[in-house]
Amino acid sequence: MNQKYLKKLKSLNNRNLIIILMFIFFISFGISKTRFLTNGNESNYHIYPVSIPKKVSFAGEEIILDEDDLIERMDKEFLVNTYWQSNTILLIKKSNKYFPQIEKILIEEGVPTDFKYLALIESGLDNVTSPRGAKGFWQIMKTTGKEYGLEINSNVDERYNLNLSTRLACKYLKKAKDKFGTWTLAAAAYNRGINGVQNEITKQNQTRYGNILFGEETKRYVFRIIALKNIVESPESFGFFIKEEQMYKPTKYEELKVDIPIYNISDFSKKLGLSYKNFKIHNPWLLENHLNNKSKKVYTILIPKE
């Protein structure tokens, strides 16, 4: 074996030894670091449970947390939404942008403003589509939308129109409130359906939300609304410190009434001084690059002010 080969082999072995030693060092450092972080006597990092009040309120109605079941349900929603920090920060920021518009409509329609938190938990204030086909901020099904007078087809879907969909939600909630007598059960009905809530009331002979055994989703529904309401209204109490300049800002609009077809939205938006993208962002209910409007219906186009 020649000297050149021996030197190369020795160099390779030394390099491998260095890599192994570095690996052992970092593993050892990681273990010691983990021990430091998890040692209750030495760590500066602590996670605490959330204090649960003895009673909470929604839409002016109190829920007394006087049973283990109610306490644990409320505790779960506070914990999930407090410690899913990235999602909750986004919800707080988006609330600042969209709540003024939603709140104005709720007041006009005679619905408690706490219901803006229902939209928050339904969609995260995004125009999302559920696995069942519900759409928009208020997650409205196609049959419900059409029943309440929204236009829904391949060209226009007014479930994405925040003004119209919020007013539809108000009509549904007022109908449920008239039937059940409380806003709390009206909120539960928004999730379970009016007939679904009525069936449980009849079967269980109970008329309070907290006394009725619902399925998992409806059981959590009102408590999740209440948890987000408390967090958004008092974020620093839950450890969320967001500067005013970091909040998403509300958009001010001019309204343009249109009762004729729009043959090319790209050209139309350009004449308004908008890009196609920005036009669509503020008018998401227009699904295509044109508006048919054969019936000469009056639509309201939103134009963002500078």
Describe the structure in your own words:
There is one protein chain. By secondary structure, the protein is mostly helical. Helices cover 53% and strands 7% of the residues. The protein has helices at 3-38, 68-83, 85-109, 116-123, 142-147, 162-180, 183-192, 194-204, 216-233, 265-271, 276-282; strands spanning 55-58, 61-64, 253-258, 299-304. The protein has 3 domains: 1-44; 55-246, Lysozyme (Orthogonal Bundle); 253-304. The protein is globular, with a radius of gyration of 27 Å.
Characteristics:
Lysozyme, 3 domains, two-stranded antiparallel sheet, 11 helices, 306 residues, two-stranded antiparallel ribbon, 7% strand, mainly alpha, 4 strands, globular
Largest sheet: 2 strands, antiparallel
Level-2 CATH architecture of the largest domain: Orthogonal Bundle
- Strand % is 5-15%
Backbone structural class? mainly alpha
> What is the residue-mean pLDDT, rounded to a whole number?
90
Q: Uncertain runs with pLDDT below 50, 5 residues or more? A: 24-40
CATH class of the largest domain: Mainly Alpha
- CATH topology name of the largest domain, in short, is Lysozyme
- How is the largest sheet built, in terms of strand order? 1-2
- The dominant shape is globular
Radius of gyration: 27 Å
Write the CATH homologous superfamily of the largest domain.
Answer: Peptidase U40
Binned, the helix content reads: 40-55%
Number of strands: 4
Distance between the termini: 80 Å
Give the helix tally: 11
Structural domain count:
3
Helix-strand pattern: HEEHHHHHHHHEHHE
